[in-house]
Write a structure and sequence with these properties.
The protein is an alpha+beta fold and 86 residues long. 45% of the residues lie in helices and 29% in strands. It contains two helices and four strands, in the order H-H-E-E-E-E. A four-stranded antiparallel beta sheet has the order 1-2-3-4. Helix 1 runs antiparallel to helix 2. The longest helix is centred in the N-terminal third of the chain and has 22 residues. The chain is globular and about 30 Å long. About 7% of the residues have low confidence.
Length: 86
């Protein structure tokens, strides 16, 4: 259980930091895509590599994967990371 909590906290930190990364230059867009790749992988969903991460709002992103999948990555009111296939 502690291990799972560690991953959830790490994923939440990745999503929160991705906002500032996406606001920067194109080099930072690559870092955000890498963070989204990790968040999706931690949820156990197929993706491969995130090619593009588009910010939709505060803690709300649309990630496009190399394998064709698209995911919406958000943080709910309780602070949990949600990854929903689009």
């Amino acid at each position: 259980m502690r291990r799972q909590l560690k991953y959830v906290v790490w994923a939440l930190a990745s999503v929160c930091c991705a906002g500032s990364l996406l606001a920067a230059d194109n080099g930072a867009d690559e870092a955000a895509a890498k963070d989204m790749t990790a968040v999706i992988a931690l949820q156990g969903l197929p993706c491969g590599k995130v090619l593009h991460a588009e910010k939709k709002g505060d803690n709300d992103y649309l990630a496009s994967c190399a394998d064709g999948n698209r995911y919406r990555v958000t943080v709910n009111a309780e602070g949990r990371v949600l990854v929903v296939k689009q």
